[in-house]
């Protein structure tokens, strides 16, 4: 789980001589100074449609640590959230995302249906100024909300259903779309799914990994037909080989994302990849 992975980062520190609290505080101050030193940025991973056409990308945060190299988000997101630092990290990802959209537009490589997805953490989603924060950044960069997909997880839907629907509806009225990330791993109540303004389900990589087994395939088929019945788009995460692609295409899946097409790339490399696949 994220917590356990967050724990892995603490093992970077001298576990012998520090208490957990001391290590957490060291980590917290390290994140704070890493933010000041511009060590965080967004990478971007392409999404392609069934014809192999580029149709979107997901922004994924990275910590470019001077000694440890690229630190993946599972090692710091949950701790950053615990210490109330997630907003600052999210601002960086949102800013990078807007910069990317404007750079692509300048290069006339921003196709009509292209969408950028961004992961939203639990506490941000719950924060009172979430909408305002989104609007402020988009306004600053003159980017349209219709270009952005907000990825949330099933557990965020489970809390106060009515209040959550109201909040999501208000955000959707601004033009943003919602996607449910890691779908199938969070035990959400299927009976309520149609009540939320959600446009997309992302099938978790763990199911795509098992799609070549009979049992795994029937789970993926079930999620695809659920999405179709609810009029939602469907994205397969973690697509790594042609066998998976053939099975997904035969089941009329809309969008694929995975190392087979491209790994998450730094912005400059992503732009190059994007332009090579847009012309
Ligand atoms: P996620 O949103 O489900 O992102 C997909 C993860 O799968 C990414 O890991 C991506 O690099 C990885 N991936 C994609 N295709 C493949 C593949 O073919 N094979 C394999 N082995 N992996 C693949 P990453 O970048 O390490 O991110 C992990 C998680 O951290 C994300 O899962 C998301 O929940 C969270 N995260 C990332 N960026 C942000 C952010 O800006 N804000 C927040 N709140 N969470 C973030
Ligand atoms: Mg995601
Ligand atoms: Mg996911
Ligand atoms: Mg995830």
From TrEMBL:
Query: Where, by residue number, does the polypeptide cross the bilayer?
Result: none
- GO terms assigned for molecular function: catalytic activity
Residues forming the EAL domain are 24-278
Full protein name: EAL domain-containing protein
**Native species:** Brumicola blandensis
